[in-house]
Amino acid sequence: LEDRALLEAAGALGVSALDLALHGGEDYALLAACDRSVEGFRRIGEVRAGRGLILRGATGERLLEPRGFDHFGG
């Protein structure tokens, strides 16, 4: 994560930039699953068989714990 505004906000809030990016609140984006590149969209991951959400980075992969508001929860 090298976005200066994100790093500054995370520092001001006393949280990690990664945590803020993943779970930080009122940011919205359109996500789509597709088997090929689509103009105007940026690839952020891939869908695999199995369960869970895995974050892949320079140091390897780790399982992410679901957090945040569940719009479909009871």
Keyword list:
two-stranded antiparallel sheet; alpha+beta; 14% strand; 74 residues
Concise structural overview:
23% of the residues lie in helices and 14% in strands.
Describe this protein's structure.
Helices cover 23% and strands 14% of the residues. The protein has 2 helices and 2 strands, in the order ααββ. The chain has helices at residues 4-13, 17-23; strands at residues 53-57, 60-64. The protein has a two-stranded antiparallel ribbon. A hairpin with a 2-residue loop joins β1 (53-57) and β2 (60-64). α1 packs across α2.
Mean pLDDT: 84
- Largest sheet, order of strands side by side? 1-2
Number of strands: 2
Class per helix and strand makeup: alpha+beta
The SSE string, one letter per element, is HHEE
CA-based shape: globular
State the helicity in percent bands.
10-25%
How far from one another are the termini?
34 Å
- Enumerate the spans where pLDDT stays under 50 for 5 or more consecutive residues: none
Largest sheet: 2 strands, antiparallel
Quickly count the helices.
Answer: 2
Radius of gyration: 15 Å
Tell me the fraction of residues in β-strands, as a range.
Answer: 5-15%
What is this structure's SSE topology?
Blueprint: H1 4-13, H2 17-23, E1 53-57, E2 60-64
Antiparallel strand pairs: 1-2
